Amino acid sequence: MPVQVIALLLFVYAAVRAVMVSLTYDESYTLLHHVLPGVFYPDTFETMPANHHPVNVWTVWCSTHLFGTSELAVRLPSLLAYLLYLVATAGITRQVPSKPLRVAAFLVLNAHPYLVDFFSLARGYAWAHAGMMLAWWALLEQLERGQVRRLWLPVAFSVLATYGSLVLVHFLLAVLAIQTVRFVTAPRHLRRASDLLLAWMLAIAGLAGLLPYVLGAMEGGAFGQGAAGFWRGCISSLAEHLLYDRPSVDDPLVVAVPLVVVLLVVLLATWPRGGRRRWSEGNLVVLTLPAIVLGSMAMQHLLLGTAWPMSRSALFLLPLVLVPLVVMLTGPGAGRWQGVMLLGLAFVFTGHLLANLNMSHTREWFASGEARKLFGLIVKDAPDLAPAGRVITVSSGQQCFGVSEYYRMRLGLEHLSFTERLPDQDFAPADYYLVESWGQELVDHANWELLHHSAGTGTSLFRDRRSLQVRGVAVAHLDQGPEPFAGDAFHGMAQLIWVVPDPAPEPPVLVIGSGMVLQHDERNWITFVLRRRSNGTIVQERMIASKDQTRETGGPEPVSVVLRIDERLGPGDEVRFIGLPYILFPDLHLDDRTMSVWR
Fold first, then answer.
1. What is the 3-state secondary structure (H, E, C) of 359-376?
2. Pairing of strands 588-598, 537-545
3. Cα 160 to Cα 531: distance, rounded to the nearest angstrom
4. Separation of alpha carbons 371 and 23, rounded Å
């Protein structure tokens, strides 16, 4: 009963987080560019398209078509995966004879804040870990019973894990190899050839379905993203995130390396001395499987130059190591001190989880954890800033900008225009600024007013006091009708030009260029440019690509670019609104292009 109670509490915590924490950059991208357009299998493999985790896309597509696009609806499949993970870990620990040790073993497998993060996010890692733990459970059950029937079951769960995260292909190959060896070495009367054949057929079919994905990802450079080294990269990044910044250490390897050494010593010290043969086989298998996985990863790295997995991609190493640890510490031959060590680990892990309980953020994308709340504050405040008809501008860091596309749709923020601050740049002039923790030194305290600061995420919302001076009075309005384009990509489309009159309007001035863009696919897009010239020289420029604002291809979508001018304009100065296609084909269509000047 205590295990079931703990499992229920963990699930409720993850479910509440799924409702409370804002969508992350990666979740938003997957939803808008893969799930809603129905891209069930990607055809481009660059940086962000590598975020297409097949089983996550498929299950989120089903969930959103049934329940809409709220945070909970998008994350329901991951919560289902968490239920499977909890059932599997409870099944693995049910054979532990001592109730306190059973609870401790369950906590060791579950009490990790960074692991729980991904069961409350719409990412493929939830299904990867659920499939992996189900495979462990099925394999351990077969080892306990000395069974060589249904060899295909752990393999089937491993295929599910691989479709959650491609890096789990190493786990699939390891499980298949172990099941094959178990079949070959088992007495003839206990084995059945059809079981092994089905296991191989499932593995081959699963790998065949992923082969185009693997080849495309390799060609697109997606596999180049990761750690250059195993210790100083893979393990270091994983340790940093597992620590959840508690304690804060300059080098996470200071904690990770001693812990790994201790775990290896424990595994070797608990090698069974005597006992039944099946337990000897079980201990041998649980130690061999992680070794095969690590060996397969090392071979891939050496032969193909593939980077080591890091941070969230390397998270599967945690249950990969902890399951053998729990089995060795609780199996026949384990003594009293092994039980004491298990209880100690459970105490440390549980304390770490409790210290990091929160409803505001995840470790991986913590800066945007309360983005929904901040966007809501902008919606409430914006009517006091300017009358209807004037676009409201928001400049933000990368994580908040990454979710702006989702919340534009979710909260009906069509009147907001978002601009991303790149790491080596200042914030673009705007009405509002979403300043993440690593951009606080760029705050203009003389002109920006703090509206809200999130203690949990370190993200602040500021309003530009100078925006109050822009009363929304239209100075000029230029428009151009439908303009299908399939011509010269270098010169772009016809320009709209505003010539500053005499007398020139007093600053600040907002120039807004907008239009309806139709992209047939993601290969080609239009870059909107607002360019200010003085005496024939370009003195200021803002640009945005339509692919950064459109939700889907194949239909007209609104795109806008905003230029804020705080300096005094001179009569005869020009502001040009330009549309530049990325490449010639496929054709693009631009309708209802307008340029408005506001004071």
1. CCCCCCCHHHCCHHHHHH
2. unpaired
3. 51
4. 8
- Enumerate the H helices of 276-366 as residue ranges: 277-304, 317-330, 336-355
- The pTM (predicted TM-score) of the whole model is 0.85
* CA atoms of 524 and 584, how far apart (whole Å): 8
The secondary structure of 382-449 as a DSSP string is HHHHS-TTSPEEEEE-HHHHHHHHHHHHHTT-TTEEEEEPPTTS-PPP-SEEEE-GGGGGG--TTTEE
215 CB-near residues (< 8 Å, 6+ apart): none
Count of alpha carbons within 13 angstroms of residue 247, beta-carbon side: 8
Pick the closest to residue 492 from 431, 543, 435 (CA basis): 543
The answer for residues whose C-beta is within 8 angstroms of residue 337's C-beta and 6 or more apart is none
Residues 328 and 90 sit within 8 Å (Cβ to Cβ):
no
Contact 186, 178 (CB under 8 A): no
CA distance 223 to 234: 14
Name the phi and psi angles at 413, rounded to 5: -100, 45
pLDDT digits (tens, 9 = 90+) for 468-525: 666 666 676 667 655 444 433 334 566 888 999 988 888 888 888 888 888 877 778 8
Q: Edge-to-edge strand order for the sheet containing 537-545?
A: 496-499, 574-581, 526-534, 537-545
Assign residue 227 a region: left if phi > 0, alpha if psi is -120 to 50, beta otherwise? beta
Q: Which two tokens stand for residue 136?
A: 């462990």
Q: How far apart are CA 587 and CA 525, in angstroms?
A: 9
The label of the residue with tokens 């640009």 reads 543
- Please enumerate in sequence order all residues whose Cβ is within 8 A of that of 335, keeping only pairs 6 or more positions apart, or say none: none
- Rounded Cα distance, 115 and 133, in Å: 13
What residue has token string 């997957």? Answer: 30
Angle of helix 71-93 relative to helix 54-67, nearest 10 degrees, comes to: 120
* Cβ contact 47:225 at 8 Å: yes
Q: How far is CA 528 from the centre of its chain?
A: 28
Q: Which two tokens stand for residue 106?
A: 């369950």
- Cα torsion 137, 142, 145, 147 to 10°: value is 170
Summarised one tens digit per residue, pLDDT across range 330-354 is: 876 667 777 888 898 999 999 999 9
d(CA 51, CA 30): 7
Alpha-carbon distance of 406 to 70, in angstroms, equals 10
